[in-house]
Amino acid sequence: MAPISGDAVSPSNTRVGWIGTGVMGQSMCAHLLNSGFTLTVFNRTISKAQPLIDRGAHLAQSPFAVASQSDVVFSIVGYPSDVRSVLLDPNSGALAGLRPGGVLVDMTTSEPSLAVEIASAAAAKGCASIDAPVSGGDRGAKNGTLAIFAGGDESQVRRLNPLFSLMGKVNYMGSPGRGQFAKLANQITIASTMVGLVEGMVYAYKAGLDVGLYLNAISTGAAGSKSLDLYGGRIMSRDFEPGFFVNHFVKDLGICLKECQNMGLALPGLALAQQLYVSLKAHGEGNLGTQALILALERLNNVSLRPSLTSTT
């Protein structure tokens, strides 16, 4: 199959590869398997790919090997350095193993300039590349309701919609790198929203309110948000399991600040949020979920919301 042109993408004519089967990738791959797509996966820690292998996915030993058996290769890994390694390494990377006509789809939140570089390298080989980072966390991945921000050739994004639609809603943002810019703007919005959420909770607690009742009360008003819906209850139950890692959020916000510097842009809310998340990392909490921001605010104010839990359960 040559996905750059020809028949619509379907399980009968498109072999899918996947690099990175962590918190997000695991669920996204499951949707593809459930829809009948042939799937070849690679993950540095094989145990994280095992549930997918048990469900019929094929295991490859390198990104190169994934691509050599696939028409469309998705990646969702940790950092821009990981993206560069799994996609562009001349010996083990996916692009080196991809046949002309194949497509790379990087769903990692990464640097816009790297997305442009990958697209140029893919085009030089007669392939295509889409940057398609996602928002929605672990629940969005499980429910197939992710927001997908796509940059690259628009006709290519349309052709891949049968795959994207299994994971969520694809939004075409423009030329290569624009998907990444959209995701970074998304992260800026989330960062300040999370600061507002946890500050409101600490204020309500200090004022003597039942924090659970307070969250319920504001959820249907103007202060309601996706962050509140996703994380309010988790914070109240001290559930800091990662739907999205603090470490990865620090990486994302760092990329945002670097791009702000390039643009000559001052975003003080972003800078504050990044410092608070860096403080979590400094306390050894980088592998917790982003809702652990409450811990930073509790430390700053020498309070703990724990005692208020008894009145909300």
Automatic annotation (TrEMBL):
Residues 15-174 form the 6-phosphogluconate dehydrogenase NADP-binding domain. The active site is at 183. Transmembrane segments: none annotated. Keywords: NAD, Oxidoreductase. It comes from the Eukaryota. Residues 177-295 form the 3-hydroxyisobutyrate dehydrogenase-like NAD-binding domain. Gene3D superfamilies: N-(1-d-carboxylethyl)-l-norvaline Dehydrogenase, domain 2, NAD(P)-binding Rossmann-like Domain. GO terms for molecular function: NAD binding; NADP binding; oxidoreductase activity, acting on the CH-OH group of donors, NAD or NADP as acceptor. The keyword Chaperone does not apply. This is 3-hydroxyisobutyrate dehydrogenase-like 1, mitochondrial. It comes from Rhamnella rubrinervis.
